[in-house]
Amino acid sequence: MPNIINIALIPLLPFLGFLILGLFGKSYLNKVAGLIGTMLLLVSTILAIHTAYEYFFQYGKVAGVYQQFIPMQFVWLQFTETMSIDMGLIIDPISVMMLVVVTFISLMVHIYSLGYMKGEKRFPIYYSFLGLFTFSMLGLVLATNIFQMYIFWELVGVSSFLLIGYYYEKPSAVAAAKKAFIVTRFADLGFLIGILILSYCAGTFNFSELIARLTTIGSTELQTAAAYSFMGVSALTWGAALVFIGGAGKSALFPLHIWLPDAMEGPTPVSALIHAATMVVAGVYLVARLFPVFAITTPEVLEGVDCCNYCMYSNGYQKGIGIFYHVANRIHDVCVRGF
After folding, report:
1. Which of 67, 151, 233, 313 has its CB surrounded by the most CB atoms within 10 Å?
2. How does strand 233-234 pair with strand 229-230?
3. What is the pTM (predicted TM-score) of this model?
4. In this prediction, what percent of the chain has a pLDDT beyond 90?
């Protein structure tokens, strides 16, 4: 079984570094402050690797299938007898792999920053912000429900704003931080609305229950999600699309990509942390976590794409549009039949 103490310490150690350096950072020399943040993250990385080893080679696989474990969970907000928001820790293949990726990449950034940021003003604050960012990403990865993920999702946005705008004396850095924050807020609004739609249809925020209820053919929740529609599109598809928009904003997908080049205004290690396998991958992790919900809406989405292609073709823009429509139609047929 998972070691709850080790798993809980993985995100808590970077958060401890954030608190120590944020509150008492001025009391330490720059080198000492950097070593505190780096050593805490080193321990967190070792615990993440140890957790991954135990999961994949000891207790994770049962009857040839890797299982999902929730070693800790408690009620945070109780709305009704059947509707509540929990806080907890989830352990499964995707979360364990992301624990290793996030902690390792962040550790490399911490180590490199010891030399790269040497002599910079507010050196302890820089490491404090790195700790907050790492804690937010780890909390997102370990979330047991979609609302808990949203809380840490927003914390990732706040910490990235602080890191991109680290050189706040430069107007360009301030503008870049504001741009990243505002653009991702539009995407996060879609994410929040999508959460409300999906949780209303499923009657729960928990990932496992939400996926089971919305992907089981004939279930009451799936019928409810299909019964409600807007502009001819079911509530389930709208919810999945809005959640995808939230992921697209974090992953800097077109047309919400405009903030990413300006993020280079921050310190170079921060740009590496954001552009590499951490913040930008948060959107990919979100889609992977809810993949069964996206899969069941695939036929309806493809039909919508076909309708758009048909409208373009019927107006007779160019011969190329007709060829594109023909190819898209064939792709639609193959995908729907395969589904």
Report:
1. 313
2. antiparallel
3. 0.82
4. 16
What value, to the nearest 5°, has the Cα angle with vertex 173 and ends 171 and 178?
A: 95
Query: Any residues with CB less than 8 A from the CB of 26 and at least 6 apart, and which?
Result: 124
State the alpha helices, DSSP H only, in the chain. 4-24, 30-54, 93-116, 123-141, 146-164, 171-202, 207-215, 220-227, 235-250, 259-262, 268-275, 282-289, 291-296, 298-314, 319-338
pLDDT over 50 (residue 339): no
Give the pLDDT of residue 315. Answer: 52
List the structure tokens of 127.
């490491």
- Whole-angstrom distance, CA of residue 298 vs CA of residue 156: 29
CA distance 182 to 192: 15
- Distance (Å, rounded) from C-alpha 266 to C-alpha 256? 19
Closest CA relative to residue 270, chosen from 143, 113, 115? 113
Comparing CA positions, the residue from 29, 209, 25 lying closest to residue 130 is 25
What is the sign, positive or negative, of the torsion defined by CA atoms of 233, 239, 244, 250?
positive
User: Cα–Cα distance between 66 and 190 in angstroms, integer?
Assistant: 32
Which pLDDT tens digit goes with each residue over 232-270? 677 788 888 888 888 888 877 778 788 878 888 888 888
pLDDT at 202 exceeding the cut of 50 = yes
